[in-house]
Amino acid sequence: MHKISNFIKKQWLIITGIIAGMLGGYAYWYFIGCSGGTCPITSSPWMSTLWGGVAGGLLFSIFTNGKNKKTNAMLLFILLPLASCNAQTNKTQNNMNTIQLTKAGFLAKVADYETNPSEWKYLGDKPAIIDFYADWCGPCKMIAPVLEELAAEYEGKIYIYKVNTEQEQELSALFGIRSIPTLLFIPMSGQPQMAQGAMPKAAFKEAIEKVLLKQ
Predict the structure, then answer these.
(1) What are the backbone angles phi and psi of residue 160, rounded to the nearest 5°?
(2) pLDDT, averaged across the chain
(3) Is the pLDDT of residue 60 over 60?
């Protein structure tokens, strides 16, 4: 009877670990997870939640089984890809070519709508794209690596800015942003053009060449 009680207790601890790991995995994706495809483990909420649940279950099983070498080896096998993924995320973030934009930066680099509220006057020295996004937005995560690639390919020719719609609500309201991602294409002269939704790289390049660079 005592053995059965211990067995049930161990199983409940493992189940608790799985649930805790799944919640942790989802939280990791929500707050830290790398963008669309750069790391398959945490670029999807489902994959991140799954890996977190497996890691949590194995971690709790260590506490219930003591020095179980097989369990420890399995945990190491699960956690190594997660650690690698985290390193890849940090590397990607450190090598960003896009530019994060706040209200102050917008007023200085894009348009001073406070001084000229009724007239669009672009202040930049190169054409620009502004990506209005949110950290929780799946399609935003999908196009993030594409924008990084384009920023590197068109370096010196255009700027690619990113505006977090949750942190910069005034900028979002200024352009009437109701769905994300929303992309604003700003040529050197004339009015900016807006596009909504996740665009493929080819569509981005076509817009850059025809709208921004006009080649």
Answers:
(1) -125, 110
(2) 78
(3) yes
**What number of residues does the chain have?**
215
Q: What is the pLDDT of residues 72-119, one digit of tens each?
A: 555 555 555 555 555 554 444 445 688 999 999 999 999 999 998 889
**By C-alpha distance, which of 103, 93, 195, 199 is closest to 148?**
93
Whether 140 is a known active-site residue: answer: yes
User: Choosing from 34, 39, 85, 140, which is the catalytic residue?
Assistant: 140
Q: Kindly list the strands in the beta sheet with 182-186, ordered across the sheet, starting from the edge strand earlier in the chain.
A: 99-100, 159-164, 128-133, 182-186, 193-196
Residue 79's pLDDT is 57
pLDDT of residue 27: 74
User: Buried b vs exposed e over 138-165: b needs ≥16 C-beta within 10 Å?
Assistant: ebbbbbbbbbbebbeebeeebbbbbbbb
Annotated catalytic residue, options 34, 39, 85, 137: 137
Burial of 34: CB neighbours in 10 Å, binned 0-12, 13-18, 19+:
buried
34 is catalytic: no
Tell me which residue of 122, 150, 126, 207 sits closest to 215, measured CA to CA. Answer: 207
